[in-house]
Amino acid sequence: MAEEAVLGFLEKNEEISDSGQFAADRGIDHQELTNIIKRLSGFRFVDAQDIKRERWVLTEEGKTYAAAGSPEMQVFNAIPPPGISLEELQRKLDPSVFKIGCSQAKKNQWVEMGKQLVTRKVDNVEDKVKDLLNRVQDGEAIDPKELDALKRRKLIAPQTWKGYSIRKGPNYAPKRKIFATDLTRDNLLRFEEMPTNNFVESSFWNFDALFQPQQHPARDSHDTFFLQVPSTTKTLPEDYVERVKGVHESGGYGSRGYGYEWKREEANKNLLRTHTTAVSSRMLYLLGQQKNFTPKKYFSIDRVFRNEAVDRTHLAEFHQIEGLVCDRGLSLGDLIGVLNNFFLRLGMSKLKFKPAYNPYTEPSMEIFSYHEGLKKWVEIGNSGMFRPEMLRPMGLPEDVRVIAWGLSLERPTMILYGVDNIRDLFGHKVDLSLIKKNPLCRLGME
After folding, report:
1. pLDDT in tens, 413-432
2. What is the pLDDT, as a whole number, of residue 319?
3. Is 387:358 a contact under the CB 8 Å cutoff?
4. Which residues form the Aminoacyl-transfer RNA synthetases class-II family profile domain (predicted)?
């Protein structure tokens, strides 16, 4: 395999100086090798440096003339020794070839363009354009003046080739240990997957149940996609709604609340969920209805929607990884430990935690990881401990704590594989060949 070839070569050699040459020598597809290098770089098995080379390639028009001859040569060959009428010559040739070829052949003084007759001025000519195009195609060195002439005729175009030079990284080993990026049956047995098959959610479960005030800017239409049809939800658990209303208006469980008039019509509004934490709120509420509390570990991976500007690291829709642990006596240290272990298993050891504010968690932390491609720290998720104002109205016991984290799927993937534009991973501009060439995540059921 290509990965073994890279690691095995570096075991005995200091550097792979050119990934393109390395791939060609071993009959490996360079795109496949590029994906492997990005993965090994993400795990810090190798350190990779970009290589860029400019080269000239034939345009579609150039490829046609490299095969069939230049337009001027086609015109010359279409003229018999006695000559030919302009009308008949035009009928023999493609319109674009006729127009360009007549102009170039006349400029080269190959033909005489009379009013009634087109004749050859010389007996033999050499098709230098076809010869130059074939030399460009073969990668031969061409005189700059001749390249410029082909460029002006739009028969060639510049192309940037991208590759890598590779050295051993700080985590190098002759063989890569397979991290827990492939799901196994044991992985899944430790966590329960939450049902996330509802892209449309009510504001109550998306915001209010999470102790997010109704005046919060995130609930504005500038940040949220609200539905017109159906515009409101039909059913909510009324006794729980009253408890949520009370903690918003007057507080409780050690909180003063927000001190405003909570409005049911705001909670009823339907929207495209802004986070899968809306599903977490439903699951914790159901857990709170049990007579005897049972510790739980939940996870989900699904689509969320945000009404925000699209750029290299943001999309209006993306995938969120959600996880939470609900048990007695949990602390912030447990959360930090889980996150460090989680990302280390994905090959990301450079993490930073920054204090943050969330209406539903206290304390709260933003999670940052260093992006080797962008050469900067990138926010990859949010985390915290759910507040009593959220948990106690659900009916969960007072000593029960919940640690939770929400991560975008695309950003950690960008960091792991060195992708610098999120639109290369998800959306209408994605390169489908990457999906076809990369391996599937296989679920081990033994």
Report:
1. 776 667 777 666 766 767 77
2. 86
3. no
4. 295-439
Token output for 421 = 């534009």
- Measured distance CA(30)–CA(38) in Å, rounded: 12
3-class SS of residue 52: strand
Q: Determine the average pLDDT of the residues in 393-398.
A: 93
CA 365/CA 353 separation, integer angstroms: 6
> Is residue 36 a contact partner of residue 3, using CB atoms and an 8 Å limit?
yes
Under 8 Å between Cβ of 207 and 50: no
Instruction: Look over the chain and give the mean of its residue pLDDT values, rounded to a whole number.
Output: 86
Query: What's the pTM?
Result: 0.55
Query: In terms of Cα–Cα distance, which of 53, 71, 66 is closest to 156?
Result: 66
Residue 191 · residue 299 · CB < 8 Å: yes
How many CA atoms does the CB half-sphere of 277 hold within 13 Å?
A: 29
Phi, psi of 54 (to 5 degrees): -90, 135
Cα 184 from Cα 101, distance rounded (Å): 65
Distance from C-alpha of 56 to C-alpha of 134, rounded to nearest angstrom: 12
Give yes or no for a contact between 131 and 113, defined as CB atoms under 8 angstroms apart.
no
Q: Return d(Cα 265, Cα 276) in angstroms, integer.
A: 22
Residue 249 banded pLDDT, cuts 50, 70, 90: very high
- Residue 367 to residues 158, 207, 378, Cα–Cα distance (Å): 41, 22, 8
Closest CA to 196 of 379, 363, 409, 426: 409
